[in-house]
Write a structure and sequence with these properties.
Strand content: 15-25%
Distance between the termini: 55 Å
CATH class: Alpha Beta
Helix content: 25-40%
Largest sheet: 8 strands, mixed
Structural class: alpha/beta
Number of strands: 10
Oligomer: single chain
CATH architecture: 3-Layer(aba) Sandwich
Strand order of the largest sheet: 1-2-4-3-7-8-9-10
């Protein structure tokens, strides 16, 4: 029979051995995977062995596009992060659209359409993010939504990187309201969403005392060049949490 002393020694040795064991490695998700958050379908990527608690980047496609067309590109993102590619709500050609824009719309009507889409998308993003900050980016309609999120949710959006977008007047910050930092990208020859709209939006944020910068690409139309793409990724990597 073990004595009390031998029993205590055994318990002590077992406890020390347990303390020396390495914690289990976090389980890595299989990806790409598709999940729905509060009615918003998202394709999720986890490059560089990222886990679901990694920094979150939400990349929002434009009108007529779809998130699955972005998967191969965002798989190559050069840092550890969770990438979420949401799918827009309405069909548009072979893709989808976030909101409708009709010729003759007033700024108030356009702002209402964008605001409704942003609110619906934001509910899903917030569900996915949990307590994490969010980096948002997007092209065209996705760029417009990125501007709106920077204005509406500076407590959760850490940075916004709109590409070829702008922001309706009703969604711009007012009365010196805080907005998330913005670095926007836009081609000077964009004939779909003219660069003057991006310039005016960035200037409006600046007038409220918010951090907003526009990087222009001479001769570029309504698409992302290799240079814009690389500048976008470099900018995102620069602001990722250490």
């Amino acid at each position: 029979m073990l004595s009390r002393r031998h029993l205590l020694q055994g318990l002590l040795v077992g406890s020390l051995a347990a303390c020396k064991r390495s914690p289990p490695a976090p389980e890595l998700p299989s990806w790409p995977r598709t999940r729905t958050y509060d009615g918003v379908e998202m394709i999720e990527l986890f490059p560089h062995d990222a886990t679901p608690d990694a920094p979150l980047i939400v990349a929002i496609h434009g009108r007529g596009d779809r998130p699955d067309r972005w998967v191969d590109d965002w798989k190559q993102f050069p840092a550890k992060a969770q990438i979420a590619l949401p799918r827009a709500f309405d069909g548009s050609g072979t893709g989808y659209s976030w909101f409708e824009f009709v010729d003759g719309m007033t700024d108030e009507q356009f702002g209402a359409a964008v605001g409704a889409a942003e609110s619906r998308l934001w509910n899903g993003i917030l569900k996915l993010a949990g307590t994490r900050k969010v980096i948002v980016t997007g092209f065209s309609q996705g760029g417009i939504l990125s501007f709106a999120m920077a204005s509406r949710h500076p407590d959760v959006v850490s940075h916004a990187f709109p590409c070829s977008g702008s922001c309706p007047g009703p969604l711009l910050p007012q009365n010196k309201a805080k907005a998330a930092p913005i670095l926007a990208f836009h081609g000077t020859d964009d004939d779909v969403l003219q660069i003057r709209w991006a310039r005016e939006a960035v200037h409006a944020f600046q007038e409220q005392g918010d951090e907003a910068v526009l990087k222009e690409y001479p001769g570029l139309g309504h698409h992302m060049s290799a240079a814009m793409h690389q500048d976008l990724w470099n900018a995102i990597v620069k602001v990722l949490p250490a």
